[in-house]
Q: What sequence folds into this?
């Protein structure tokens, strides 16, 4: 594959207070992307919603109201995206490169001079609660929640779910405390990409390299010794027209030697349109509009998941067919032709995923979280090229043991065919 | 924003556009057919979209379309809307010819076996349930369209009026639709990537040149008569929050009014400093979500307002507040600073939607369909030319009660 892996590795500057600044330049771009990453995901929170609310409320400052700040970002044509996952929180700004100086100054203000008001929090929580109410009517959301609670246990930071009453419990002080503890230099990283210039880099270095409390690096979550054993769960949802199926388990992290082998297996099994489960369950049986498998790498545990919304009466058949497809791979090695297609599909997907400086900058978050480098992708390309059908079969025998999977189904109990 | 291209029309009517972009190793291949759900018979709705699914069913030469593309490291997909059906592929540059080979083959030689048709009907019905029936507020489009359009075929959604239309679709109907519309003179091809125009033109001639033109006569759709009185409807559904929808007829996608309304929708609801958000969501606390947007239909389309009511807020109060916002715009010119703001935001969005080779190929086809691919590069200028006076004139002309359709989507308490 004709790809220059070196472009995945940014030039890195250390700011005065230790914050790393990663650079992905594209001088021809009229657009700019700045991402601020903090080790401030939901696994660190002491109260539900604390991490999300904190990230969302980073608007108002000592000198400007939330409205005034959003007005200023909007004026420069900026779009702000906020992400809070289990491990990290981030704020991504897309803007016109010609306003980079103004944007950097606004960013400094929202991070350094953040103010949390009870009124803004109340409004945020009310809006989130209404979105929660709507999400809970979707079988996909209900099964997703139940699945993670099943895999990690409800007491685990990765297994906890928000309940409706949580939206009444969070206090302004909780949000501010989270900000003080986690939005500190020791937890921060900045990724700059696109059409910036030296002046932008200097502005970021000057403004974020000092005046930020250094703080304590967050205690990163370690893998749990004991996780709940695999079981099947069913969540009834009366009147649902489709059932939602989630199936999966904890697998090896991206840093493990056998990760790349498993990734190839995942691709062949459910990672592309021509995959085993898509062909069987959609294209041959018509049980669903779509079914796929994917790997979700969290810092302490990586999870492999099969997900689909299916014909209400067929959820049992779908689970049986997923198992059936796993068994087939254990019993018989895939054909060379199929494996060749997987190789080609992956390479095409990879080139598309890395097509553009913003895409490459986005991938850095993943590599950085696991302490990986471009060697990760080189290693994967090598595995993909060299892996044999027999090795795929051996991998299936290793990872697809029948009793190791959690299954969660949400749907209408009465419509569930025996 | 400038997206240069070269164009050639083959003898059989196929239009070919080429945009050179050397920043990517992948070539984007976009083939648009000028057929959408507006071309369906009212008793066989959902056909254009069902046929899009069946287009992946294979030909005698390439029984498994996806496998051929995937085997070459390519990716492909398609979408259908009321106006057109669009197929797109991304291929490593050195395998680009394969895209020509398979796409030209399935333009004429699609196999429509009863078995494959049966399975894709099931798949599409599951899609219908997943996206429209089994999710809160999913059926809104199904309710609003027939209310807004009494004569024009925008009266039904691309997925179809109901699942029975898909289940009962006769195979002969599918075949005749395919034979009529899947023709070179009813299609536009764009290739973007590290390519030369001459090589793309040569490939087009080689693979598509031999396909005879269909000679389709221009479509004659019943125009939607001007709406003269307010339309209202209320439904009760098992959803958590009552939601108000207001839909106004406006001009078609390429009319000057479209640009005006696109900017009005931004002024109302793009971002947290927008008027709706600051005034009605945050200050008055009437809505927990409130959006305005334009439909971007090629034929005369619509301007939408969608507001999810906070608990305890009635429709009358919510509608009055929306009307007050409309009246303010009708009577007071928006400040220059606010216009600059929404134009800056629009510029960011426009640059983003034309960043990738594939986006550019798709957009070139779309603009060619609407009269000329060159218009794509003129988009920003058209937005820039909108001023407060034109906004006011458009608001006064279109955002009137007699031109509105209102849906109360009421939560079962």
A:
């Amino acid at each position: 594959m004709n790809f220059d892996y070196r472009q995945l590795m940014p030039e890195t500057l250390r700011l005065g207070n230790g914050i790393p600044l990663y650079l992905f330049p594209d001088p021809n771009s009229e657009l700019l992307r700045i991402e601020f990453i903090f080790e401030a995901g939901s696994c660190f929170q002491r109260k539900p919603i604390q991490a999300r609310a904190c990230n969302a409320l980073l608007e108002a400052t000592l000198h400007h109201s939330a409205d005034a700040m959003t007005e200023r970002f909007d004026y420069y044509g900026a779009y702000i995206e906020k992400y809070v996952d289990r491990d990290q929180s981030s704020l991504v700004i897309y803007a016109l490169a010609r306003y980079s100086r103004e944007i950097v100054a606004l960013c400094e203000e929202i991070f350094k001079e953040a103010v949390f008001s009870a009124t803004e929090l109340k409004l945020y929580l009310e809006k989130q609660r209404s979105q929660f109410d709507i999400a809970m009517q979707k079988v996909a959301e209900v099964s997703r929640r139940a699945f993670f609670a099943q895999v990690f246990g409800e007491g685990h930071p990765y297994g906890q779910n928000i309940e409706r009453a949580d939206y009444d419990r969070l206090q302004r002080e909780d949000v501010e405390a989270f900000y003080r503890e986690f939005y500190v230099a020791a937890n921060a990283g900045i990724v700059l990409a696109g059409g910036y210039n030296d002046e932008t880099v200097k502005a970021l270095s000057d403004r974020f390299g000092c005046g930020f409390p250094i703080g304590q690096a967050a205690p990163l979550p370690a893998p749990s010794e004991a996780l709940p054993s695999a079981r099947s769960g069913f969540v009834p949802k009366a009147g649902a027209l489709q059932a939602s199926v989630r199936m999966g388990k904890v697998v090896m992290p991206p840093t493990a030697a056998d990760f790349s082998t498993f990734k190839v297996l995942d691709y062949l099994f459910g990672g592309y349109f021509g995959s085993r489960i898509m062909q069987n369950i959609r294209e041959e049986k018509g049980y669903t509009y779509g079914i796929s498998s994917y790997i979700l790498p969290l810092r302490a545990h990586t999870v492999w998941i099969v997900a689909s919304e299916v014909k209400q009466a067929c959820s049992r058949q779908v689970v049986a067919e997923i198992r059936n497809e796993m068994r087939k791979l254990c019993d018989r090695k895939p054909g060379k032709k199929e494996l060749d297609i997987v190789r080609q599909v992956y390479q095409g997907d990879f080139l598309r995923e890395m097509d553009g400086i913003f895409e490459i900058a986005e991938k850095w978050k993943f590599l950085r979280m696991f302490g990986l480098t471009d060697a990760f992708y080189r290693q994967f390309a090598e595995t993909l090229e060299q892996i044999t059908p027999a090795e795929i079969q051996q991998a299936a025998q290793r990872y697809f043991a029948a009793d190791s999977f959690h299954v969660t189904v949400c749907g209408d109990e009465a419509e569930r065919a025996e | 924003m400038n997206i240069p291209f070269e164009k050639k029309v083959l003898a059989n009517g196929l239009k070919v556009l080429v945009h050179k972009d050397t920043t990517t190793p992948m070539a984007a291949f976009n083939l648009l057919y000028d057929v959408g759900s507006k071309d369906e018979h009212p008793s066989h709705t959902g056909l254009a979209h069902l046929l899009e699914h069946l287009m992946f069913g294979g030909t005698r030469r390439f029984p498994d379309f996806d496998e051929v593309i995937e085997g070459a490291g390519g990716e492909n997909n398609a979408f259908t809307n009321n106006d057109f059906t669009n197929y797109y592929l991304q291929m490593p540059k050195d395998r680009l010819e394969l895209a020509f080979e398979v796409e030209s083959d399935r333009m004429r030689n699609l196999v429509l076996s009863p078995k494959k048709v049966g399975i894709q009907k099931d798949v599409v019905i599951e899609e219908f349930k997943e996206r429209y029936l089994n999710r809160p507020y999913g059926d809104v489009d199904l309710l609003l369209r027939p209310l807004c359009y009494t004569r024009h075929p925008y009266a039904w959604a691309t997925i179809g009026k109901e699942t029975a239309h898909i289940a009962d679709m006769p195979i002969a109907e599918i075949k005749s639709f395919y034979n009529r519309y899947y023709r070179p003179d009813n299609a536009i091809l764009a290739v973007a990537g590290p390519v030369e125009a001459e090589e793309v033109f040569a490939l087009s001639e080689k693979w598509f040149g031999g396909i005879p033109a269909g000679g389709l006569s221009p479509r004659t759709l019943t125009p939607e008569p001007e709406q003269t009185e307010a339309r209202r409807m209320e439904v009760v559904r098992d959803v958590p929050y009552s939601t108000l929808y207001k839909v106004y007829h406006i001009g078609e996608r390429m009319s000057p009014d479209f640009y005006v309304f696109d900017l009005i929708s931004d002024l109302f609801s793009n971002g947290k400093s927008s008027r709706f958000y600051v005034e009605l969501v945050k200050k008055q606390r009437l809505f927990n979500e409130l959006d305005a947007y334009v439909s971007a239909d090629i034929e005369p389309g619509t301007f939408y307002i969608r507001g999810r009511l906070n608990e305890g807020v009635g429709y009358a109060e919510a509608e009055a507040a929306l009307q007050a916002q409309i009246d303010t715009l009708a009577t007071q010119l928006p400040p220059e600073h606010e216009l600059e703001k929404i134009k800056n935001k629009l510029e960011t969005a426009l640059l983003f939607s034309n960043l990738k080779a594939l986006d550019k190929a798709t957009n070139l086809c779309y603009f060619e369909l609407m009269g000329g691919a060159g218009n794509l590069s003129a988009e920003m200028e058209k937005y820039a030319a909108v001023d407060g006076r034109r906004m006011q004139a458009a608001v006064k002309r279109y955002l009137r009660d007699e031109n509105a359709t209102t849906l109360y989507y009421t939560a079962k308490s």
